[in-house]
Design goal:
By secondary structure, this protein is mainly beta. The protein has no helices and eight strands. It comes from Echinicola arenosa.
Length: 118
């Protein structure tokens, strides 16, 4: 997976940020900071990110295609334009039953100050 930060102050077309590669998951870093990061991913059909846990919430936006997001054993199908927040410390995996592209946004700071909905 390739990691580098994108050019700032430039117009980005999300679906054009990253290409598909046969039989692969590809990532491209848009922003990477100690406080969090934004990453574009492309998944070829049949590919997946294995089950893991992250200490931070992860906001997933599907920008092309259809993704299967499994959070704590519960499967959700997201279509282009749909989003989900994967809660911190929850087991999760991402599967490509069809090829798709997504943006992942993780913010690592502020957990001690803010609770969603308050």
């Amino acid at each position: 997976m390739g990691h580098f930060e994108m050019q700032k102050s430039e117009i980005l077309i999300l679906v054009e940020l990253i290409d598909y590669i046969p039989n692969a998951v590809l990532s491209k870093t848009i922003i990477k900071k100690t406080t969090g990061n934004v990453t574009a991913f492309s998944f070829d059909s049949g590919e997946a990110l294995l089950e893991k846990k992250c200490p931070y919430d992860n906001f997933i936006q599907v920008i092309e295609g259809k993704a299967e997001i499994i959070v704590d054993g519960n499967s959700k199908i997201l279509n282009s334009g749909q989003s989900i927040i994967i809660p911190a410390h929850m087991s999760n995996s991402i599967k490509a039953n069809f090829r798709f592209k997504m943006i992942s946004t993780i913010i690592k700071s502020g957990y001690e100050d803010v609770e969603l909905g308050q």
